[in-house]
Structure formats: C-alpha cells, structure tokens
Amino acid sequence: MDRITRVQDYPLSERAPERILSARGKPLNALTLEAVLFGEVSIEDLRITPEALRAQADIARLAGRPALADNFERGAELVHVPQDLIMDTYELLRPGRAKTRCELVERARLLRTEYRALRLAEFIEEAAEQYKRRGLVTD
Amino acid sequence: MEKVTPPNRWRRYSDWDDRPLRLDQFARNDPANGFSAFKSPADPAPGFQVENGRIASMDGVLAHEFDMIDAFIAAYHLDPEVAPEAMAMDSSEVARMLVDMNVPREKLVRLAHGMTPAKLADVVSRLNALEIAFAYSKMRPRKTPGNQAHVTNAKDDPLQLAADAAVAAGFGFDELETTMRVARTAWSNALACLVGSCVGDWGTLFQCSSEEAEELKIGMAGFTSYAETVSVYGTERSFIDGDDTPWSKAFLVAAYASRGIKARCTSGGGAELLMGYHEAKSLLYLEARCLCLQRGMGVQGTQNGGIDGAPITASLAGGMREMMAENLLAVWLDLECASGNDARPTESEIRVGAKILPYLIAGSDLICSGFGSILKYDNSFNPSLFNGEEMEDFLILQRDFEADGGITPLPESRALELRTRAVEAISAVLEELDLAVATPQMKASVISASGSLETTTFSTGETASISEKIQQRVTVIDVIRALHKQGFAREAENLLKMVKLRVSGDYLQTSSIVRNGRILSAVNDPNDYAGPGTGYRMSPERSEAVSNIRDVLGRAEVVRAQSMHRRNEGQHISYSSAGEARHGSHPNEVVIGISPAFGLQIYQTTGGIGLSEVLRALIRGVEAGGSSARIVRMYHSADTSFIGLKAAELSGSGIGIGIQAKGTAVIHQKGRMPHNNLELFSNSPITTLEHYEAMGRNAAQWTFGLRPEPVIVPTEGQALGARYHTQVALIHAIETALTVPGQAPEETVVRFLKGAL
Question: Quick check: B250 and A123 CB within 8 A?
C-alpha cells in the first residue's frame, strides 16, 4: 500500500476503503456476512495487517502524533510474530525474568533476523542497556 | 434548687456523626509519608539541561542518575526541539494560556511535548478547580464527549452480562468493560458481553479486563476491541513491584496495536501511595511522570484521575482538584482521557454529585472510565462513582445543565426489549455452539432481574466450564455464524461490523469511538473550542434526546389525574350557586371562601385528599367551635390571602377562611392587610383532615374573641417545592384561568351526598 499523504483520507474504511486489504488479500467490502457464512472469511481476514498499521502511522504523523505513529510501526513489526513469542518476549521484558543483558540482546537478534522487526529489536536492546544500568540484569 | 447538669455536647455533632459522609476517612497532609496532593518538599523543581546535543539533566536529576522512568521520558517524551523554549517559559504565563480561549490547543500541545513532569505539574497546580475544568474542556482531544460503562455481575452469569451489556449499549455508552469474580470465567464473560453489545445498534467498543496474556488472547479470538489495563506507575519501585518496566509496558502497547486492538494505559493519583513506594513526592508530580511516560510509549490514551487510588486521593485536602488536574495533564499531552469518575471515592451522595459536575459540563472523551451500569453489589471492579442505582440521577444532571454526558434516557419498554433479545441471543449462541442450555426459567429470571441476587441461572462453576470450552474452540467467526443460524441476523451483522473495525485500524487513532456506524476520533472530530459558540454544542436533536426523561408533567397529565377523581367527588358532594354572596350579620359565623376551580375542575388537594372531605372537615371544625359555616365561591382572585380576606369581609363575625383547590388554606380577619393573616397552611401536601378540622375550630374561636393556639402542620423538611411545584403551578394556572377581575363572590350551597364519609 502507498503511504498516506493526506489526513483527509482518514477514516480509511470510509474515505479510502479500496486501500485496505485483509491479511489474505480480500478487500474490505468483500468481508460480508454472506462471505463469513459461506466460509470464505476466516479469523485471519479479520486481523490487522502491517500495511494498515503503517497507514495509520502515516495518519498519526500527519495529525501531529509522532509517538503514536512510532507505536503503530512497532506494532506493524509484531503482526506476523506468533502470539506465543509475543507473550514470551513481553514476559522476558518484565523485571527479574531475564537474568542477563545477553538474554534480551539475544531476543532482539531473533526478532530482527526472523521477523525483520528492526525497531523492536533496537527497542529491546535499549531496554537491555537500561536494565543493566539500573541493576535489573547482569551483563 | 434542682441541679442541672451542664451539656456535654451540642447534639448536632451526633446528627453529623450519623451521616454517610462520616463513613469517609480524611487524611492529614503529610508529604513525608506521601500524603500531599499538589506539592511536596520532595518534588523536584522543573529543570532541563542539554550538553553536546544530549539531555544532561531533567528535573534536577543528572542523566547518569536517571531511573528507568526518567530515562524513558527523556528518550521518548521530551521533544528536544521544543524543550528549550517550553522549559524557559514562565509557568504562570503557560497556566494563563491554558485558560485563554484565544490560544489554540495545538500550540499548547506542542509546548507540553517540550516540558518535563515537574514543569507540567508546576503549571497546572497554578489553576483553581474552575480553571482546570475550563482548560480541560478546551484541551480534550475529541470534540464529542463520550462515556464508558462497567458490565459485570456477582455470579459472572453470561445471561445477565448479555442483558446488561445490551442495556448499557442502549443507553449509548461508547465503551463497555467487564471483568470477573473468578478468573476462569473470562472467556464466557467476554462472549456474553460481546453478544449483548450487538443487540440494538452496533458500535459499542468492548474490553474484558483480565490478566495481560489472557486479555490479549481473548482479543486475538476477536471478542474484544480495546484494552485499558496497561498500568504504569510514577516511581521505579512501584513499577517493578507492579511487575513491569516502561519497556515491557510499551512492548505490550505495541502488541495490542499489532492485533488491531485499541489500547490505553491506566495510571492515577494514589497508586504509588497505596503501593508504598511514593518517594515522598506529591500525587500530581508522580502522575505527571506516568503521563509523560505514556505519551512516550505512543499509547493513544489513558485512563487516569485517581482510578483505584481515587478514594485515597479524595481523602486528601485538594484531592478532588488534584484528580481534575491529572486529567488536564493527560489531555494537554494530547492523550485520550477516560477521566476516572470510576472507583467510588465517597459514601456521600453530595460529594458524588460534586465530583462529576466539572466533567459533565466540561465534557470528556469518556467521562467515566467505568460508570457502573449494574447495581453496586454486582460491580466486580467495586462500586463506581455512579452505578445502576444512580443512572437516572446522571441522566437528569445532563438535562439540568444541558450537558452531554454521553448517554441517553432509555424508555422502559425498550430496555425490556433489549434484555429479552440479548438473553435469547446469548442462549441461542450457547446452545448452537454446544456450550450450555439456558432454561426458560433462567432466561425469565434474568430478563426481569435488577441484579444477580434475583436471578436463577448458571452457577459460577458451570460458567467456568462454559468459559473453558470457549477458550478451547470458539472464535468470533463461530459466534457470528451461530447468531445467524439461530435467527439473529441483525446481531450477526452488527458483530461482523465490530470485528471489521480492526482490519483498517481506524479506531486505533487517538480518542476513537463509533457513533452511528462511523468512527469519531481526535483526527476527524478534533476539539476546536475557541470560545462561546465553538467546540462541542448539542444539536437540537441531541438536546431533545437528553431532556426526554421519563415521567415529565404537563397540563395534560395534571388534568388527566384530576379527572380520575371527578367521578368519585361527584358521588360525595354537589355545589350549587345561590346568587351573589351577601354580607352576613351573624356575629359568630365563619365564611369559607373557596377558589374558582374548587371541586369544579380540581378535585383533590396536593396532599391527595378529596375536596369534599376537606370542606366537611372545615365545617365540622367550625361547628365544633360553636359557629356556623357559610360557603362562598370567589372569582376575583385565586390567591389564598385575597380569598380569605374577602371571606372575612363577607362574614358577620369578620372571620373567614380561604382555601384553594390545591389545599392551601388561611384564617383571615376583616381589616387586616391581605398577607397579614391569622393562620396559614402553606404546605398543602402534608396537611391532613385533622389539620383542616382544627383550623375550622380555631376560626370559630376567633369569632368569640378568643386567641386559640395556632395549628402547626409539622414538616419533616421534605423538599416540597421539588416534589410538588410543577403540579402546583399547573393547578394554579387552571385556577387563575377561571378568575374574573371584579366578579362578585357567589353564595354556594354545598350538599354532602349519600356515601360521603
């Protein structure tokens, strides 16, 4: 999907529905009750895509909310990360779970290489440094 | 001489002891132990230094000494482009800008992004409560106000959850939040509220507050659309004690975005105090840290303003003002604000009403971050500021102040329809998905029940088993199909529309709600307040909807009510005219002057006594006092004093009684000023037949030159004006319409008929 350049395109579902595709490539207007009843729409089709999140990030930035946009972009990187790994990474970031800085750095590497989650990897590396500085983890 | 014990107490204090207010505890200001609302000696002075392009210190802490919260705020909140300018500004000047309608919101938001927590707290602490409310109204992100409801019950009963969710959606709450008594019922609660919220119109966002991992899983299955349990704290020790860090919470926020679920954080004054790690800082300063953190995390909004800490915050001097200041900080930072008014901070209904008013008139993204739409005992979060019991009080406050509190009166018949449909829908889903069978008795008991004490329904254990099955094998797709198959096509369609919201993610933007099938957020409905006539104003339709409460009185209702008594009175009394009233000559007679509509258009006093009985009591009293009574109908006036005075002037004794149809009565004497009567019954709603009879007797005694003890109608302090004045004004209008200035009084022959008491 092209980047959004006008805040007037928001809400995308009303102003630019053709730009929204489900995870399996279905346009928004194909997600009908009939399609659900005929088994043509699965729960997968009702999930957000990285593209939609990046479009929302564009809108947030155009509306003057860069921090919100950054969060949407971190979210976009997590869309294809399996639920268990998300929960495991969240758990690892909680105090006292990771004992060493390296455990966190290793998780950052995994997310970067396996899921191209570049921003998140950086974010977790930063957490690792801060946790070490504040004594939550050893090296 | 008798010995008199000196009083040991003014008993008014005993009365005060007994008021609900005195159940509240109030805390002494004690900053060293964390008890200070706005300012503590331990709060740092605002400060900010940059060296070599890096933040060298913030609020008196050097960069290498930053705790995790400082570090996160410095990295993600503080805008280095704006900070030098914003931090250099005089705090009083910024405070004035907040209440200056000519300073645009965007300009202030930009400055906030360059301010440290201590600076932000310093600015808002300079505003009084009224200024905070005004600034809040100007700064809140979305123009249209909204509201959120709690939907829970003590049994975690899915049938009742569905019924109550449907009713809450029917009242127009934009968001519903549930939680459970027993963690194992989370999935059942989620399914039940979701189905209930899709009965009627669609567009109510829903969350199931549970353990973080579980909540995300329930969201993944398509059952929920938002989350607000991402708690953050203002001290590092509280954060760690709460089992998180700024980075873990920011990660969780991103995880919610990745699942297309709207998220907001939770913070609020008193949390650190309750957790014991307050660092002797003021509540406001700690909350400013929480909010800078939240903005840095990139969450779209917050639930703050005390929240679980509201009761302890309200115990402090300035505590309620502090909660308002917290909310102002949130919206100044451009966060959606679900503005507390949640955990009930007091047993005093007066404090409840006072707490809500600034928010009601200022508006808020979500006025309550949990209005208890259910009864207090059914609220699994603990009672809210407002609860099911007080729903109509809130609706009427909206009407009183013509302020949009985000909800709309729901006609009784519509509420019953919604409950019935919701219980049928959830029962059908439970049955179709082979989860449980609700019996007709269970359904009927839930539909009519005000709360769970009245229901015969699933046990919590049975519900936990339903919940486990849902967790194992049900997604929202199954629910949509089940609804449709069982004949709930509209609900199936509504549910699909809800779930589709997450595909575009439009509702992830700041302050999003769904109204009339469309997303409204700070992006497409920005608050543009710039003085009178701007910002949010209710449309005429909305205004009409808000004012359309039940049981309003008009002339038609009063006439209808009176006409129900006409027939009964007709069997007891007849009035006939005997020409123009004469001046009497008997020295002991009492003339009873009746008003124009007395017994002709009005048949009962506001105290609910038939006028025939009233007249009989007066006459009985007059005769018992040794006098005779003569009845005269007045036309020149409908005013008790003038009726009474005229009666006295016509009376041979110079003593007369005047009585209006609504029951107000007076003893008058010839020659007195109209309003300087001998005795007056001004509170007709509490005046009884005994009182009227005693008045008659006293009037008689006056004719003998005696000075009888006046009859006192005791009042218990009822707000009779509130209870009766609408009716009184309408009745009086009927009386005054019959008056003819200058028309002479009429001699009236009254006959009490067979069957009279």
Answer: yes
Catalytic residue among B164, B215, B287, B342: B342
Indicate the residue of B71, B247, B506 with minimum beta-carbon distance to A10: B506
**Active-site residue B342, yes or no?**
yes
What tens digit of pLDDT does each residue of A24-79 get?
999 999 999 999 999 999 999 999 999 999 999 999 999 999 999 999 999 999 99
For residue B344, is pLDDT > 50?
yes
Mean of the pLDDT values across residues B317-346?
98
pLDDT of residue B756: 47
Say what the pLDDT of residue B213 is. 84
Say yes or no for a CB contact (<8 Å) between A36 and B297.
no
ipTM value greater than 0.90? yes
Query: Is the Cβ–Cβ distance between A24 and A44 less than 8 Å?
Result: yes
**Among the CATH numbers 3.20.20.350, 2.60.320.10, 3.50.50.60, 3.30.1070.10, which is that of B30-134+229-340?**
3.20.20.350
Question: Does the domain formed by B555-752 have CATH 3.40.50.10150?
Answer: yes
When pLDDT is cut at 50, 70 and 90, the band that residue A103 belongs to is very high
**Residue A1: per-residue pLDDT:** 62
- CATH T-level fold of A81-139: Hypothetical Protein Yqey; Chain: A; domain1 (1.10.1510)
Helix B412-432 with B186-197: angle, nearest 10 deg? 130
- The pair of structure tokens assigned to B232 is 């953050």
Active-site entry in B210, B303, B315, B511: B303
Domains B30-134+229-340 and B140-224+346-548 fall in the same CATH topology: yes
Q: What is the DSSP letter of A24?
A: T
Q: What are the residue boundaries of the structural domains of chain B, listed by start?
A: 30-134+229-340, 140-224+346-548, 555-752
Would residue B85 show up in a list of annotated catalytic residues for this protein?
no
By C-alpha distance, the chain A residue nearest B107 is A64
In this structure, which long-range contacts are made by residues A89-94, counting pairs with CB atoms below 8 Å and at least 24 apart in sequence? A89/A124, A89/B251, A90/B212, A90/B213, A90/B248, A90/B251, A90/B252, A90/B255, A91/B213, A93/A124, A93/A127, A93/B245, A93/B247, A93/B248, A93/B251, A94/B243, A94/B244, A94/B245, A94/B248
Whether B475 and A43 lie within 8 Å, measured CB to CB = yes
Using CA coordinates, name the residue in chain A closest to B261: A48
B164-200: pLDDT as tens digits = 999 999 999 999 999 999 999 999 999 999 999 999 9
> At residue B216, does pLDDT exceed 60?
yes
C-alpha distance from A105 to closest chain B C-alpha (Å): 14
Instruction: Say which CATH class B140-224+346-548 falls into.
Output: alpha beta
Taking CB atoms and an 8 Å limit, are A130 and B71 in contact across chains?
Answer: yes
Residues of B in contact with A74 (CB under 8 A): 250-251, 254, 257, 298
**Is B400 annotated in the active site?**
no
Number of Cα atoms under 13 Å in the Cβ half of residue B507? 31
Angstrom distances, CA of residue A41 to CA of B169, B224, B234, B608:
27, 19, 44, 65
Mutate to test the interface with B, among A13, A49, A97 (most CBs of B within 10 A): A13
Nearest CA in chain B to A52: B504
pLDDT at B229: 85
User: Rounded mean pLDDT of B310-326?
Assistant: 98
Sequence-distant contacts of B133-136: CB under 8 A, at least 24 apart? B133/B324, B133/B358, B133/B359, B133/B361, B133/B362, B134/B99, B134/B362, B135/B98, B135/B99, B135/B328, B135/B332, B136/B324, B136/B327, B136/B328, B136/B331, B136/B358, B136/B359, B136/B362, B136/B364
Q: CATH 1.10.1510.20 region(s) of chain A? A: 81-139
Give the mean pLDDT of chain B. 96
Separation CA B615–CA B611 (nearest Å): 6
Query: Given an 8 Å threshold on Cβ–Cβ distance, is A63 in contact with B212?
Result: no
